[in-house]
Amino acid sequence: MQKLLISVVAIIALVAGVVIFNSLPKPQPQALVYDPPRELNPFILEGHTGAQLTNADLTGQWTFLFTGYTSCPDICPTTMADLRKALPQLASLAERPVRVWMISVDPKRDTIKKLADYNTYFGSEFMGVRADHQQLYPFVNGLGLMYSIPAADETDYLVNHSSAIVLVNPDGERHAIFKASHQPGELPTVDMDQMIRDFQLIIQQYD
């Protein structure tokens, strides 16, 4: 009888523990996660390999996309270096490949060769992407990002652009956006440690 009572108490304690655990708030990503994920409008862009890129090239992998340009003096090379450092950890969390698209917002100066030289320096997982403004602007805007277009006669200029990073899931959908932190006296860049933690939570929820 005593053994039966102990067993019943143990079962009750186990059930109570499960109920309490399930009622506890689950960790949530700090990134803006789209629920449900949002489809991307059809696009045609150029990769730094010279190949044409379409929506199909974003499927079957996790892709981190951000706007930049090869003449950028600060945010772009910093973000690229940070992503290269974070990529092994990001890749270890996912069963699918993890890639980075650097979307050039300076098509006037960023040729295929320039993008190839720039991106291959950071690794084979990096793809430089370009298009004329007519195709580029709607694509960037559809990601929830922005950039400025310089006057046609300007030759030495800076391009203002978003410093956030967009995550596209293996279905080719916009899944999340990691916003940059803005600290006085510092470059507005994405916190890579937080992005890694968020990515792990996003993958768990996606799977």
TrEMBL record:
<dbReference type="InterPro" id="IPR003782">
    <property type="entry name" value="SCO1/SenC"/>
</dbReference>
<dbReference type="InterPro" id="IPR013766">
    <property type="entry name" value="Thioredoxin_domain"/>
</dbReference>
<feature type="disulfide bond" description="Redox-active">
    <location>
        <begin position="72"/>
        <end position="76"/>
    </location>
</feature>
<keyword id="KW-1015">Disulfide bond</keyword>
<keyword id="KW-0186">Copper</keyword>
<protein>
    <submittedName>
        <fullName>SCO family protein</fullName>
    </submittedName>
</protein>
<dbReference type="InterPro" id="IPR036249">
    <property type="entry name" value="Thioredoxin-like_sf"/>
</dbReference>
<feature type="binding site">
    <location>
        <position position="72"/>
    </location>
    <ligand>
        <name>Cu cation</name>
    </ligand>
</feature>
<feature type="binding site">
    <location>
        <position position="161"/>
    </location>
    <ligand>
        <name>Cu cation</name>
    </ligand>
</feature>
<keyword id="KW-0479">Metal-binding</keyword>
<comment type="similarity">
    <text>Belongs to the SCO1/2 family.</text>
</comment>
<dbReference type="GO" id="GO:0046872">
    <property type="term" value="F:metal ion binding"/>
</dbReference>
<feature type="domain" description="Thioredoxin">
    <location>
        <begin position="34"/>
        <end position="201"/>
    </location>
</feature>
<dbReference type="Pfam" id="PF02630">
    <property type="entry name" value="SCO1-SenC"/>
</dbReference>
<feature type="binding site">
    <location>
        <position position="76"/>
    </location>
    <ligand>
        <name>Cu cation</name>
    </ligand>
</feature>
